[in-house]
């Protein structure tokens, strides 16, 4: 995580996003739910309930089965990004572009760990 200071109200946005992730994961997960280094990991999610190989929402990672150690290391960086930017993160992520090789949030999280290289 960089030394950037969190945006104002980021903590509130992070808490809200985490609550949404916990609710979404609790409703749709059919697999094991576990906590790994402060990240709630919901396996067994239907593929339509998340993007790409999985999605991080606040402190929750939602996936069907993509939860190896490298991926979880990548997703913990996204969790830290949620902490830093709060609800501004989805907007900033969108503005950074869908190409993970150019998206600054994916680059910071680690392209190799995220399975992009």
From TrEMBL:
Can you name this protein? Fe-S oxidoreductase
Do the record's keywords include Transmembrane?
yes
What keywords is this UniProt entry annotated with?
Membrane, Transmembrane, Transmembrane helix
Name the source's superkingdom: Bacteria
Show the stretches that span the lipid bilayer.
12-30
């Amino acid at each position: 995580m960089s030394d950037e200071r969190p945006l104002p109200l980021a903590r509130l946005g992070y808490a809200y996003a985490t609550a949404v992730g916990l609710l979404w994961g609790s409703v749709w997960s059919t697999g094991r739910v576990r906590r790994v280094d402060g990240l709630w990991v919901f396996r067994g999610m239907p593929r339509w309930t998340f993007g790409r190989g999985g999605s991080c929402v606040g402190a929750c990672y939602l996936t069907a089965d993509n939860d190896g150690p490298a991926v979880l290391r990548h997703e913990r960086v996204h969790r830290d990004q949620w902490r830093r930017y709060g609800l501004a993160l989805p907007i900033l992520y969108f503005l950074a572009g869908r190409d993970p090789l150019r998206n600054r949030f994916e680059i910071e999280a680690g392209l190799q760990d995220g399975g992009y290289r």
